Amino acid sequence: MGIGLACYTPPVTVRFTLIHVDRETGARAGVLDTPHGPVDTPAFMPVGTHGTIRALTPEEVREAGAEIVLANTFHLMLRPGAALIAKAGGLHAFMHWNGPLLVDSGGFQVFSLPHLRQVNDDGVVFRSPIEGSEVRLTPERVTEIEEALGADIIMPLDVCLGFPASAHDAEEGLRRTVAWAERARAAQRRPDQTLFAIVQGGFEAGLRRRAADEMAARGFPGYAVGGLSVGEPRALTYDLVAEVTSRLPAGKPRYLMGVGVPPSVIEAVARGADMFDCVLPTRVGRNGIALTPDGRLNLRHAEHTQVFAPLEDGCPCPACRGYTRAYLRHLFKAGEMLGPRLVSLHNLTFMARFSRAMRAAILEDRFPSWSRSVLDRYQTAW
Questions:
Q1: Total domains in the fold of the chain
Q2: I want to staple 339 with a disulfide (CB 3.0 to 4.6 A). Which of 6, 85, 109, 332 is the partner?
Q3: Closest alpha carbon to 88 in 149, 142, 137
Q4: d(CA 366, CA 360)
Q5: If you average pLDDT over residues 10-29, what whole number do you get?
Q6: Is residue 95 part of a domain?
Q7: What residues make up the domain containing 242?
Q8: DSSP secondary structure string, 11-63?
Q9: pLDDT tens per residue, range 231-262
């Protein structure tokens, strides 16, 4: 028996318009049109794993400049459950977010449970990390859950490997990820959701090229690059991103999963990636670290005790408009929840402004000089 479909707007698929490509680097600017509004690319997606950007309201997230957010199918399936969310009208209504929404399949989370799972060609069986019951996930089941959640963009179940990975595991992961993407597409019922394919293939360039070719040949409306930023050297990450994006259709969006450190985003954009997600901005913000044009600023350091200046001059976020570094440091030292909220808001505002500046540089044919300038400032900060 099915779990029901969330209420949704009339069928409108996600469409991507490529506006401009930097001739020197391949950096791209575009627009992703979704049933819940447009998204300018390059785009950073804040991560709301459980259907919330931790400690922030959806209104605050929107005011910080976020156009699209990400939630996680794996966690929402376990708690509170897809049937309840569908009954509430879908994830948009349940979490009070009226903008574009992407849900990851949870493949990364499943494969992070090596002692609790078993994998075969049909899918994955694992023990719930919440209460220990057995859970079986197949590509069809994941698609059914994602249709109940009702997000604009959904991801198929995939095989995500840690670094390093053996040639055998990478080959098997590639084969299963391709087969599972096909099965997920065959299981789709909702015409208003867009299924992206995920390119896996481990850490060997040849397998990554083959995975990209196989997925591209199947004509998916968008493509994610998965299984990177999992402990491999950054230079290898960038090389593999370039290998994959060079073989994907130019007119389709390209989503690099799990990357959100500003220098890494710049390097990936320079290699043709369009979309990114990461918990880093809000996670480090809750721990007193602010993102600035000159790198990380750690408010727990004593040097900020008597600094009566904002985190960043000219930043429009609530933290910079009304509070000093000295006061924000005091909040963290006192254990007050206002500190993590304000710095999280600042970091999301920073990422939105960073993405807009990157897009403007691409559109104005100055991305190479802009990126060099930014990377020079970050050289020792990250």
A1: 2
A2: 332
A3: 149
A4: 8
A5: 89
A6: yes
A7: 15-278
A8: P---EEEEEEE-TTT--EEEEEEETTEEEEESEEEEB-TTSS-TT--HHHHHH
A9: 999 999 999 999 999 999 999 999 999 999 99
